[in-house]
Amino acid sequence: MIQHDIAARLEALFSQRGFAEPSVSELKAASGVSLRTLYRHFPSKESMVIGALQHRHERYLAFLEDEVPSDGAAALSHLYQRLGHWMKHEAPNGCMSINALAAFPDNRDVSDAVTRHKRETLHWLGTRSRREDLANELFLIHEGASSAWLVLGDTAIEAALSTTLTLLGKPRK
């Protein structure tokens, strides 16, 4: 349980401050444990990043699943409503996974953690939409919306939903 709590605290720090800025003393303070305990659970900064990414991944999928409708198109509308909320309140500096890749471009373990998150998000989109044949297209729209949110805000979410509805052959609201 302590590793989970540390990962949650590190996730919050990395989300707010990025990966380059936090010093060892800031990581220790944010974790809420001694340096020895922090390094026992996460022996390197990269392992701290991976722990934070894993924690965030689990939180994001649980967040999407919360009260998700069973109807495919309604599930996607729910997704974009949730994505807009996530971006506003949980991702002030954009997608933490993409930011981790930028900060650790040559780290295979970070890359694997990000790839796993993105593949599971893609799978979620295909399954929940009931349009597995469009999972890649839905994933690209999702990723575009999360990337564009930093510049366009809610307009990115609205455009993603509109594009998704067009792709599905549904009338725009």
TrEMBL record:
The keyword DNA-binding applies. Residues 23-42 bind DNA. The keyword Transcription applies. Keywords: DNA-binding, Transcription, Transcription regulation. Residues 1-60 form the HTH tetR-type domain. It holds the Pfam family TetR_N. It comes from the Bacteria. PANTHER family: HTH-TYPE TRANSCRIPTIONAL REGULATOR YJDC, TRANSCRIPTIONAL REGULATORY PROTEIN. This is TetR/AcrR family transcriptional regulator. It comes from Cobetia marina (Deleya marina).
